[in-house]
Design a protein that fits this description.
single chain, about 150 residues, two-stranded antiparallel ribbon
């Protein structure tokens, strides 16, 4: 598929502009290249200047006690990073509307057992012996009947 502008072969504007574009003189190009090469400082000079400025800054701040605060700030950053990287259990909210609405059901012990702490323990049967079958009303002076 040909582009829309290719239908007119007589009007090739891009080619005509490229052919007639102005070009810089060779003298200008060489002088510009020399200027660019000489003005650019080397990497060693940059590192030396940065190091000198760092030493000067530390020397100026040392009497004020800024080195101690910088050390404690670095320690704080290390502690914060340790807290971020440490793995802890997720905190769980205890008293929430959902916890109130859906309380945990208590475990019911089967028949013949009773709760002893968290476990269900079998209840011992009571020994058979003299049983009281009938009691007299209180404070009437009557005696109890034994079977």
């Amino acid at each position: 598929m040909k582009p829309f502008w290719s239908r007119r072969r007589s009007l090739d504007l891009e080619a005509e502009l490229r052919k007639n574009k102005p070009e810089p003189s060779s003298e200008f190009v060489t002088s510009l290249a020399k200027q660019v090469r000489t003005e650019r400082p080397t990497a060693r000079v940059r590192v030396a200047v940065a190091g000198a400025l760092s030493v000067a800054l530390l020397a100026a701040l040392a009497p004020v006690g800024a080195l101690g605060s910088a050390g404690s700030a670095a320690k704080g950053v290390a502690n914060a990073a340790a807290r971020v990287l440490a793995t802890h259990a997720r905190p769980v909210a205890q008293h929430t509307p959902a916890a109130s609405q859906y309380p945990k059901k208590k475990k019911v012990c089967p028949k013949g057992t009773k709760r002893h702490g968290k476990k269900c323990v079998k209840v011992k049967k009571k020994a058979k012996g003299a049983r009281v079958t009938h009691r007299a009303p209180r404070f009437t002076g009557g005696k109890m009947k034994h079977r």
